[in-house]
Design goal:
Blueprint: H1 2-15, H2 18-30, E1 36-43, E2 46-54, H3 73-90, H4 100-103, H5 117-121, H6 141-149, H7 165-179
Antiparallel strand pairs: 1-2
Length: about 180
């Protein structure tokens, strides 16, 4: 959704139709693609559009503001993880229907044996969105992946959309095992 949204915004910017931007973002929020967003467009070194939409969290009444700061960790998921997955797919190194447990056997614990690369990439794995922990500063990467391996599904894989950090953690591990390289 985020790549599509960026493309739509770029097309709309070229037409100078800001109402279309507003409608697109509001529709995405209504569809629960994300709880809120801040859209800013810089053109010729000038801010030509900047507006906040929605709230910080689902069910929150705290509105986004144009000064909201975002954690860039999610950007690394799109740039690093998604790019690596699609490069390997484009090279026909794997299919999106392959199971995560094919590459990481321990992942299949607690009902996760049928989760595919595609399920993780489109956030239909069934894993919870994030952790009850405030942060993972006291966990190394291996501990975090072990935590992910031990998760139980919150819903049946492939039946719902729920953005999950744990889907991306699983994909990071698959990429590293498959390529023998650190992401």
């Amino acid at each position: 959704m985020s790549i599509l949204l960026c493309v739509l915004i770029l097309l709309i910017v070229s037409c100078d139709k800001w109402d279309s931007v507003r409608t697109t973002v509001k529709d995405a929020i209504a569809d629960k693609a994300f709880p809120g967003a801040v859209v800013g467009v810089l053109y010729n070194n000038e801010v030509v559009f900047k507006e906040a939409f929605g709230t910080y969290y689902y069910g929150s009444d705290i509105p986004m503001t144009v000064d909201t700061l975002f954690d860039l960790a999610s950007v690394s998921k799109v740039i690093g993880t998604t790019s690596a997955v699609m490069l390997l797919y484009d090279q026909k190194a794997w299919t999106l229907e392959e199971k995560i447990s094919k590459y990481v056997p321990d992942f299949k614990a607690n009902g996760k044996e049928n989760i595919t690369i595609l399920n993780c990439m489109v956030h239909e794995s069934g894993m919870q969105p994030d952790s009850p922990f405030d942060d993972f500063s006291d966990m190394n990467a291996q501990m975090l992946f072990q935590y992910t391996n031990n998760l139980r599904l919150q819903y049946k894989t492939g039946t719902e959309f729920s953005y999950s950090d744990f889907s991306m953690i699983a994909m990071k591990e698959v990429i590293e095992v498959f390529t023998s390289m650190k992401l």
